[in-house]
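Hi C.,

You asked whether I'd gotten around to modeling the 80-residue construct. I have! Everything is below, sequence then structure, no commentary in between.
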Amino acid sequence: EGPPTVALDNARKYLLKRHADYQATPAFWMDALTDRVRYNNADILTNEATLQQVTAKEVQRLARKLSRSGNTAEVILNGL
């Protein structure tokens, strides 16, 4: 079924906020210029539009593909 609409919306808001905060730093612009010059890639500049277009079905398809790939890792967080 994919993620609930509320969860997807919350994740999208969080990522858009982080991206907006990152855009205010010199590191963002250095990364944007580096990606453009080295790789002819300007994806970092269209991140907001891309995030707005992600659907629950696409998240579901990606999760299914990743879970079936067999490439997994177990991570254990141990608070000290």
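If it helps when you're writing up: The chain has a mean pLDDT of 90.

Thanks,
B.
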